[in-house]
């Protein structure tokens, strides 16, 4: 296979990738496709040779999400669905904690992260040592960790949760009080949905914390018939201004089922592009807060990872066993 710099937009590549581009032409300008298509074609060819799958988070750019991904979704859905594939190699087009979670649930598979720089401000806001100190300060209080945490943190907690099942997870513990980490805003949202006392850590997602209620009001003044849907990692004034609050998956489901004529998705802006592909009847107003870590994942990085089978995600067996238990406990919680 030629080097990335040598890949060309030939007639054969154009023909092979035409059906892929047809799906995303509303969100990827035609002038850009000749640059993406050779990489998309090479990745899809190499996946077959490696018996590999690409898992892409909703915040990936459309050429990755629609061009090379085999499984798409939020962080936990990606890892859980990967357990049902017979692929030998998993390429996680997302950030590092997501790749770790995929490895926890798929310990026998090779898991690759295309960018070593794909971190997460929220995951970085708390350490395993912080969790141990919290347990000392609140003896006997169970600890719930959002999946947006490192494997080291997961290994120190009782159970994990997603933004979609956080309330069910908290109530499954049968406790009067729980420690909830690391996202302060998600914790505050959960506290409005349950009688369990929530003790919150003060971490934030650098994408979602930049939105404001005043910004939502400004968009409403500029656009008629605007439906605002927000992720619960946003500040409380944003959630109060929204018409619907839900996880990444529930936001997507809302657009698909309600089909609003015009929608503002208050989350990472590539998600609007990806949802727009399947919702041509809806106009998307895009407040563009990009995740700088997600955007370090590129088509060329995915191709290089498949070529070299590096960088690999490795987790020490004893730590992995403890972290995996917290994730598996979450998976056992039945949704309402």
Automatic annotation (TrEMBL):
Q: Can you quote the record's cofactor note?
A: Binds 1 [4Fe-4S] cluster per subunit.
**Top-rank taxon:** Bacteria
Residues bound to iminosuccinate: 57, 75, 146-148, 163, 231-233, 248
Q: What is its EC number?
A: 2.5.1.72
Key words of the record = 4Fe-4S, Cytoplasm, Iron, Iron-sulfur, Metal-binding, Pyridine nucleotide biosynthesis, Transferase
Primary enzyme class: transferase
Q: Where is the signal peptide?
A: none
Identify the InterPro entries for this entry.
NadA, NadA_sf, Quinolinate_synth_type2
Question: What GO terms are given for molecular function?
Answer: transferase activity
Quick one: which residues bind [4Fe-4S] cluster?
A: 120, 205, 291
The pathway this protein participates in, as annotated, is: Cofactor biosynthesis; NAD(+) biosynthesis; quinolinate from iminoaspartate: step 1/1
Q: Where in the cell is it found?
A: Cytoplasm
Q: Which reaction does it catalyse?
A: iminosuccinate + dihydroxyacetone phosphate = quinolinate + phosphate + 2 H2O + H(+)
Q: Which cofactor does it need?
A: [4Fe-4S] cluster
Q: What does this protein do?
A: Catalyzes the condensation of iminoaspartate with dihydroxyacetone phosphate to form quinolinate.
Family indicated by similarity: Belongs to the quinolinate synthase family. Type 2 subfamily.
Quote the protein name from its UniProt record.
Quinolinate synthase
């Amino acid at each position: 296979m030629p080097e990335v710099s040598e890949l060309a937009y030939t007639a054969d590549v154009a023909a092979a990738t035409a059906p892929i581009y047809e799906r995303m032409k509303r969100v990827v300008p035609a002038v850009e496709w000749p640059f993406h298509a050779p990489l998309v074609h090479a990745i899809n060819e190499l996946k077959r040779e490696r018996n590999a799958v690409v898992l892409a988070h909703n915040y990936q750019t459309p050429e990755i999400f629609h061009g090379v991904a085999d499984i798409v979704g939020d962080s936990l859905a990606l890892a859980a669905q990967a357990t049902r594939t017979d692929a030998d190699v998993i390429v996680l087009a997302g950030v590092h904690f997501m790749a770790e979670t995929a490895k926890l649930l798929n310990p026998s598979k090779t898991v690759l992260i295309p960018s070593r720089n794909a971190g997460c401000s929220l995951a970085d806001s708390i350490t395993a040592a912080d969790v141990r100190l919290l347990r000392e300060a609140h003896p006997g209080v169970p600890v719930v960790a959002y999946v947006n945490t490192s494997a080291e943190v997961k290994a120190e907690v009782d159970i994990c949760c997603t933004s979609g099942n956080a309330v069910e997870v908290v109530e499954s513990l049968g406790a009067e009080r729980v420690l909830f980490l690391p996202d302060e805003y998600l914790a505050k949202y959960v506290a409005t949905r349950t009688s369990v006392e929530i003790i919150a850590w003060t971490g934030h997602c650098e994408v979602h914390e930049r939105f404001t209620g005043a910004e939502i009001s400004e968009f409403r003044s500029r656009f008629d018939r605007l439906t605002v849907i927000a992720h619960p990692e946003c500040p409380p004034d944003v959630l109060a201004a929204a018409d619907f609050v839900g996880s990444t998956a529930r936001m997507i489901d809302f657009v698909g089922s309600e089909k609003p004529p015009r929608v503002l998705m208050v989350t990472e802006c590539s998600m609007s592009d990806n949802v727009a592909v399947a919702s041509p009847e809806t106009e998307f107003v895009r407040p563009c807060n990009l995740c700088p870590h997600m955007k370090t994942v590129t088509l060329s990085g995915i191709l290089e990872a498949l070529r070299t089978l590096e960088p690999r995600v490795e987790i020490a067996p004893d730590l992995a066993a403890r972290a995996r238990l917290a994730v598996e406990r979450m998976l056992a919680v039945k949704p309402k």
